[in-house]
Amino acid sequence: MVEQINTEKFDELLNGDKPVVCDFFASWCGPCKMLAPVMDDVSKEFEDKAVFVKVDIDENMELASRYGIMSIPLVAVFVNGEKKAIWRKPKQPSFSKTIFDIARGIFRALLTFRSK
Questions:
Q1: Which among 21, 32, 78, 113 would be 20 to 30 A from 48, CA to CA?
Q2: pTM score, two decimals?
Q3: Strand pairing category for 3-4 and 51-56
């Protein structure tokens, strides 16, 4: 299961050796709840290649502001402390297809950044 963290822990992880995959969410967000099991599955498959976390933007507003997060869910991949890739919920109604696109994008990003 993906660990929910705060801003302080997030900053610590950015200084670590592994890429950080962060699901920015809010407890009231329906699409965020739909994404959670996908993130859990992806994290199990890539647990040796990246750290998977989630951050509640309502509880960590400074962090959301720092990265300009205006809509959720948003998944970002950080490598060496830098934001390298993001996936946002599109405005189209077929969100379930988008969840799998996000998962595939995370896989591609992690494979790309780990092979360099």
A1: 32
A2: 0.81
A3: parallel
Q: For residue 3, with 0-12 CB atoms within 10 Å meaning exposed, 13-18 middle and 19 or more buried, which class applies?
A: exposed
9 Cβ contact partners less than 8 Å away, ≥ 6 residues apart: 53
Q: CA-to-CA distance for 11 and 27, rounded, in angstroms? A: 22
Catalytic residues, which ones? 29, 32
The CA distance from 24 to 32, in Å, is 8
Residues 10-27 have pLDDT tens digits of 999 999 999 999 999 999
Backbone angles phi and psi of 71, in degrees to 5 = -145, 155
10 exposed, middle or buried (CB, 10 Å; 0-12, 13-18, 19+)?
A: middle
Q: Are 2 and 43 in contact (CB under 8 A)?
A: yes
- When pLDDT is averaged across residues 67-81 and rounded to a whole number, the result is 91
